[in-house]
Amino acid sequence: MKTIRWGIIGCGDVTEIKSGPGFSKADNSTLIAVMRRNAALAEDYARRHGVPRWHADAEAIIAADDIDAVYIATRPDTHHDYVLRCAAAGKAVYVEKPMATTYAQCVEMVIACRTHGVPLFVAYYRRAMPYLLKVKALLDEGAIGRVCAVATRYFDRLPGPAEMAGGRLPWRVDPSFCSGGIFFDTICHNVDILDFFFGPIAEAKGFPANRARVYSPPDTVTASYAFSSGICGTGVWCFAADRIGEVTEITGTEGSIAFHPFTFEPIRLTRGDDVTEFPIVNPPHVQQPLIQTIVDEMNGVGACPSHGESAARAAWVIETILKDYTPATN
Length: 330
What we know:
Elements: E1 4-9, H1 13-16, H2 22-25, E2 29-35, H3 39-49, E3 53-55, H4 58-62, E4 69-72, H5 76-88, E5 92-95, H6 103-115, E6 120-122, H7 130-140, E7 147-155, H8 161-164, H9 181-186, H10 188-198, E8 201-209, E9 220-227, E10 232-238, E11 245-252, E12 255-259, E13 267-271, E14 274-278, H11 288-298, H12 308-322
Parallel strand pairs: 1-2, 1-4, 2-3, 4-5, 5-6, 7-10
Antiparallel strand pairs: 7-11, 8-9, 9-10, 11-12, 12-13, 13-14
């Protein structure tokens, strides 16, 4: 079995625990080098994580003969460029979500990787987590009968004073980065996991708004959508609420499943008066199970559930829901 040799472009916060250690801990996988534009931070990361070498230039990762696959963990506005460069260099690519800032860019990335004969994987790691696999198993075994509808509720508070000090904005709600805000950057996970369960969403209509007027991207979004399979869905997401909480509920002809794809509270299966809870413990490095599926696919002994094509579908849904939004002005 071949050992897949990895390089990381962008060794920031997401790579500290969620993803980075998984490249060395997965079977038949090793992390060769990391890159960050700040050389001191790149060197510090390499030292702390036992990575053989570090760079301050992405090209040193992309062009390296001893690297088979590249994990791109930078901000979404850089993903398109890095993926195209990696594809042209013949490197397999694993890119963070959201896949890119527009659906059109996602399509270009898929085509580029296909043209150069390299696989494109996207970090919708919930598709490989035991928690969500349990929900899928319940659905697949018909635990709630024929699925009819799915409804999502997600509430969070506005950024605190410390995050907004000096008039600065967290990058996720900075309009110079992207007008879609937290909905664009975070809720794509929600959309993707529903695609994993039920297949593609064929139609979507959104009603994005900004009610708090603290920043210009939307802070409140409602949406309705329909899957190609005929299942109907709705969602309410508010990032200016007085509380934190989230749940997605799937209703079927014989019961319902309530689960929490962000907080991972126990899954609840309800059939009439019978309620069963399933507490599922997350792995310490939540991306490691997906990384393992990538390594296995590259070795011809398995398949990764998150590719560029499925991630592009999530991008299309998010873009469609937000397409009529007019940025808020104070």
